[in-house]
Automatic annotation (TrEMBL):
Residues 468-492 have a biased composition (Pro residues). SUPFAM superfamilies: TPR-like. Its main location: membrane. The chain crosses the membrane at residues 44-76. Signal peptide: none annotated. This is Heme biosynthesis protein HemY. One of its GO terms (cellular component) is membrane. Residues 33-143 form the HemY N-terminal domain. Keywords: Membrane, Transmembrane, Transmembrane helix. It is found in: Membrane. It comes from Frigidibacter albus. Residues 460-514 are annotated as: Disordered.
Length: 514
């Protein structure tokens, strides 16, 4: 508002100054006398000023016409660029206007208009490094992948646009589902610009999905050096990739390298449960049970997990239930109040046939946090104490529709995975699986149909002439009789064993029948 007023005031002042100047010149008695070829001209002050302005305009126009005449003469003498430069300025102006309109059309989502403006700009400018980018993106917007790929391939011939061409082709192959070609293009783009964030993310995802763990560690290191990842996150993910790389090495038969890699991965990230399990088995294979115990205790202190208990049980596979319960106390002391500690101790007590002790350890856990595991353990305790069949059935009936408890769940897509892996099999997310309980766990599919199989179907009332139904056979949850201690066997030749083979589950190791 103020600036507009200032501009109006300045315009009025300029008009007033010109008017006063013209009035002063017209009233002035002085003038200019010009004598040319025997003729004499007398000009007043105002007439002299107007003549000077007209003279300047005439000189400027004469120079322009002279320049055009010179350009035409040079064109006629063989210089084709002389007159072309004279007309190129207008063509460039129109070309850049079309280019700007094409960019605005792309931003507005008008693919057809952007393609039209890009074609016009190409005809006027002959600058493919500028117009091809707009044409390719317009073709993508219209769904014309064939034309987009053709244009991106043209960009590969110019050093200035090669990266844009590789990146565009990479996105096209990803859209087509050709991840193998997309991976090669991503590696090429990463080689050209290793600090490009989008290329880093896509390359890391494709490398983890294809199992290229060594390459993924290189890409992850580039992200860390660029400051995109916190130090602790980088250490964890690098340990995760090292663990997967160790598993691949073990598949090739080199168990020593796999063992050392697993131990290194555990040192880098002690809270990574799969790394702790594999490192503990590696220490056992090396004959260092104390180191294995230290690894498992540290991981159990951070997050108790059934796999850790299975690895700890596998350290001494041949032992009685009483001895195993006593040995596990060393592990339980690391995190005595955890729910997994309570459940594992209960399973061991059931295996040792100490059912009253198992009930005391469980306490009110089955009421505070009813899961399929806690309710099944209560059914085993009730059966072991000689409770009525109705009580055992009641616990098992509740277990069918109860929560599954903690599981490996993807934080990105909430998919439940049977086993841990660095990449989610559903959404491809990297390092997204966490051991937790789903917030809204659905009941077991077809749980109502499975109830008769678990708790037994009540016998229907039969007529006298009907054949009586066969007796139902409920699932036996009674723990087995304790096995006598094995007799010492004579020493045998050591056999080559698999130090990373999965041991039986904790329940099976303790002799619990499900």
């Amino acid at each position: 508002m103020i600036w507009s007023f200032v501009k109006v005031a300045l315009f009025v002042a300029a008009i007033a100054a010109l008017t006063l100047g013209a009035t002063w010149l017209s009233d002035s008695a002085e003038g200019i006398r010009v004598a040319v070829a025997g003729m004499e001209f007398t000009l007043g002050a105002l007439q002299a000023a107007i003549a000077a302005v007209l003279l300047i305009l005439g000189v400027w126009l004469f120079l322009k016409v002279l320049g055009l005449i010179v350009a035409v003469l040079k064109f006629l003498s063989g210089d084709e660029t002389a007159i072309s430069r004279y007309f190129d300025r207008n063509r460039e102006r129109k070309g850049y206007e079309a280019l700007a309109e094409g960019m605005m059309a792309l931003a507005s989502g008008e693919g057809k208009l952007a393609q039209t403006r890009a074609s016009r700009a190409e005809r006027l400018l002959h600058r493919p490094e500028l117009t091809d980018l707009i044409s390719a993106q317009a073709a993508e917007m219209q769904g014309d992948r064939k034309r987009a790929i053709e244009i991106y391939k043209r960009l590969l011939s110019d050093d200035r646009t090669r990266f844009a061409g590789v990146r565009g082709l990479m996105h096209q192959k990803l859209a087509e589902g050709d991840t193998e070609t997309a991976l090669r293009l991503a590696e090429k783009a990463f080689e050209m610009k290793p600090r490009h964030e989008e290329v880093q993310d896509i390359l890391l995802r494709l490398q983890t999905e294809s199992g290229n763990w060594a390459g993924a560690r290189t890409t992850l290191g580039a992200e860390a050096r660029q400051g995109r990842l916190p130090r602790d996150v980088h250490k964890r993910r690098d340990a995760l990739l090292a663990l997967q790389e160790a598993k691949e090495v073990f598949k090739e038969g080199n168990s020593i390298e796999a063992r050392e890699a697993a131990i290194a991965a555990n040192k880098a990230s002690p809270d990574l449960i799969p790394a702790a399990v594999m490192a503990a088995r590696g220490y056992v294979a090396k004959g260092e049970p104390k180191s294995a115990l230290r690894v498992l205790r540290k991981a159990w202190e951070v997050q108790p997990h059934p796999d850790l208990a299975a690895a700890f049980a596998g350290m001494v596979p041949e032992e009685s239930p009483i001895d195993r319960l006593s040995r596990f106390e060393t592990l339980f002391k690391a995190n005595p109040g955890a729910e997994e500690t309570v459940l594992t101790r209960t399973e061991l007590l059931i295996a040792a046939e100490d059912f009253p002790g198992a009930r005391r350890v469980m306490g009110d856990l089955a009421e505070r946090h009813p899961t399929a595991r806690t309710l099944t353990l209560m059914a085993a305790i009730a059966r072991g104490e000689g409770a009525d069949e109705a009580e055992v059935r009641g616990w098992l009936t509740r277990a069918v529709s109860a929560s599954r408890g903690p599981q490996w769940i993807c934080d990105k897509c909430q998919t439940v995975a049977a086993d841990w892996s660095p990449v989610c099999g559903a959404c491809g997310g990297f390092d997204t699986l966490s051991w937790r309980e789903a917030p809204d766990t659905p009941p077991l599919p077809h749980g109502a149909e499975m109830l008769p199989l678990i708790v037994g179907r009540p016998a229907p009332v039969q007529e006298e002439e009907d054949t009586p139904p066969p007796p139902r056979q409920p699932v036996d949850v009674t723990p087995p009789e304790p096995e006598p201690a094995p007799k010492p066997a004579p020493p045998a030749e050591p056999e080559e064993t698999d130090p990373f083979a999965e041991p039986p589950s904790v329940a099976a190791a303790r002799g619990i029948k499900a």
